[in-house]
Amino acid sequence: MTMNNYSDLLEQQRTFYLAGHTKPVEFRKKQLQLLKQLLKDHEQEIIDAVYSDFKKPAFETFGTEIGLIINEINFAISNLDSWIKPQHVPGSLVNFPSRNYILKEPYGVALIISPWNYPVQLSLLPLVGAIAAGNTAIIKPSELTGATSDVLQKLIGEYFKQEYISVITGGVETSKALLALDVNYIFFTGSTKVGKIIMKTAAERLIPVTLELGGKSPCIVDETANLEISAKRIAWGKFVNAGQTCVAPDYLLIQESIREDFSHHLKKAIQELYGETPAKSPDFTRIINRTHFDRIASLIDPEKVIYGGETDAETNFISPTVLDNVSWDDDVMQDEIFGPLLPILTYTSLEDAVEQIRRAPRPLALYLFTANEGHERYILENVTFGGGAINDTIAQLGNHHLSFGGVGNSGFGSYHGKASFDCFSHQKSIMKKNFLLDIPLRYAPYDGKIKWLKTIFR
Ligand code: NAD
After folding, report:
1. In the CATH scheme, what is the homologous superfamily, with its name and number, of domain 218-405?
2. Are 347 and 253 in contact (CB under 8 A)?
3. Which of 124, 189, 241 to mutate to test the pocket of ligand 1 (most atoms within 8 A of CB)?
């Protein structure tokens, strides 16, 4: 498609939206149902496409992509009637008598730009919110997962009219061209670096944005935690999708006194997941491409490897790797790793742990493994992060009652469940009066009236 075609597409979607087609609640529910049907009818095709992009196992594609979206659709369909209702709020004395309410209005045309690491989920989960809230949508999936993006384009094209929902494939230039359009909302998931470009571009036309970005998410383990279970849950959350997960634990902060014990359990847990030879495990994903392979491989300091460390450039394979004795000066601690390397750092006191975390930009997630509620309270009160879990990793995303989003460098705005509906809805506040009573207090001449104002605003 050329720029002219993009403008045409935008015009078609705007016309479709302005004609009111997307607004009736029954229409929205029907479209959500259709999206679910698409996923059910083409489950295998989607799983195969994701596998061909980076060997992601079917179990993970179903569990972390298709299943999550179906779950979200079901939740939206059952709750849409209540979400969509005008929200009545109390009146105020200055406006007596009046009725006051907030309408949930769609923005109009939404642009959804997604990354490659969960290529289906991160394109279609925001779409559920966009549909539920009554918008039309243009989706730009990642160029790095070409097979998946093609399948998404084909299937969305078969199930939906392009004036309602359309997938545009392409790389950075395509993304830039779409950003030049006067859409009404931009929902971006990707890196902090590109997030800044998106916000800058959107700022020129004051288009509202949600930025779902990344960062270095800490994982703290203290001496009161059950080390065996903690190690299993951490190994799973870190190495699922080969560590290419925005909310994966990026690095470990282990209380110094349990470092040896914990390392032992961690190695055992990884071995149980992927066996002696992870390259042969059907359950371990590959790195998305050679550039990322080179970037991640260069972060492995052989002197610090206490587990794994194997790489194969031919197949973009990097084994689950644990690095010990890591410090904040090491290369691996400079940026989000986004790969299967787990550095171990230690702390002596919780204050020390908090201080270490605060030195870095605010992370998307934080995980704490502890049996001590005082420790839990201390961390939650003293560290700002997007969201997280106590005594687990990543699994918090399985609950659509929990909104999901970052803070500071890890982004802003949130979605999932009702938060997705709210994210794609403008809150239109209305105050309604009748003609029966017209209190003259506000009208000039003001002489002698200020005392009345002062009794109201005391
Ligand atoms: P990316 O920022 O490189 O790309 C994301 C999207 O932006 C792609 O569709 C790409 O085509 C487009 N893009 C790239 N450069 C652009 C530019 N200059 N102008 C306009 N558009 C551009 O991210 P990625 O490598 O695909 O994904 C990995 C990153 O995403 C990680 O940092 C990860 O933490 C983050 N992430 C965040 C979440 C979340 O929900 N918060 C989820 C997944 C990934």
Report:
1. Aldehyde Dehydrogenase; Chain A, domain 2 (3.40.309.10)
2. yes
3. 189
